[in-house]
Write a structure and sequence with these properties.
It comes from Amphritea opalescens. The chain is mainly α. The chain is built from eleven helices and two strands. The chain has two domains: 2-68, Winged helix-like DNA-binding domain superfamily/Winged helix DNA-binding domain (Arc Repressor Mutant, subunit A); 75-229, GntR ligand-binding domain-like (Four Helix Bundle (Hemerythrin (Met), subunit A)), CATH 1.20.120. A two-stranded antiparallel sheet has the order 1-2.
């Protein structure tokens, strides 16, 4: 019977990973709490988590904390240093924008369809904070923008979108930041259209209009690319 319970728990945990309910990089609930909340023995939990680790879904850190792994990371071998080196190249910056247009469009589409009510509340709160901030540095603006888009990706309940977004934004942040620097130099200020585009993305997701969310998120990035093409 214990083996059946362990198998059931293993499948439940995998389902949490595959649906994005448990984000790559997030810590699993402690085995003690998992045992209490699911009303199964510690041995059952330990066996299921051990199997998850053996299959490469999680890693156990010092102190016994268990973290969900990003399953794409072993296949994404470019180091942070290489990403920084490419980040100043204008052509590479354009390519990053083109990938972002596709990635963020799909992330917004699935988030509009699948986000929980709590996730929508968190996105709404982050959007409102973003609108209230006024005196950020350029670096802070870049981080703020990515935090909003990463929250959208993490609310998509799409494992591949979440995993790739985490890796893409981390490794190519220098290129994303470089795009903002060039845009500011070209226009002399933060383009007015960006604020309206964030609003369109936010509104479409809040209304669970998946097609409008996809269109608004893609257009947001392509708008910036068009500005760079004038440079």
């Amino acid at each position: 019977m214990k083996q059946n319970l362990s198998d059931d728990l293993l499948q439940q945990l995998k389902e949490c990973l595959f649906t994005g309910a448990l984000l790559p990089g997030a810590e699993l609930t402690s085995q003690r709490r998992m045992s209490a909340s699911l009303k199964v023995s510690r041995a059952t939990v330990r066996e299921a988590v051990g199997q998850l680790e053996a299959e490469g879904y999680v890693e156990v850190r010092h102190g016994g904390k268990t973290r969900a792994k990003n399953l794409l990371e072993p296949h994404f071998n470019m180091s942070l240093g290489e990403g920084k080196a490419l980040g100043d190249n204008p052509e590479f910056q354009r390519q990053v924008l083109e990938v972002r247009a596709m990635l963020e469009g799909e992330a917004a589409f699935y988030t509009a369809q699948r986000a929980t009510d709590d996730q929508l509340k968190a996105l709404d709160a982050e959007y409102r904070k973003m609108q209230q901030r006024q005196q950020e540095t350029t670096l802070e603006k870049a981080k703020e923008d990515l935090r909003f888009h990463m929250m959208i990706a993490e609310s998509s309940h799409h494992l591949l979108i979440i995993s790739f977004s985490q890796l893409f934004y981390t490794r190519f942040f220098n290129a994303i930041y470089g795009v903002l620097i060039r845009t500011l130099k070209t226009n002399g200020r933060y383009p007015e259209g960006i604020r309206a585009q964030h609003s369109a993305i936010h509104q479409a997701i809040m209304q669970r209009d998946a097609e409008a969310a996809r269109s608004a998120a893609s257009e947001h990035i392509l708008y910036t690319r068009r500005h760079l093409e004038k440079d």
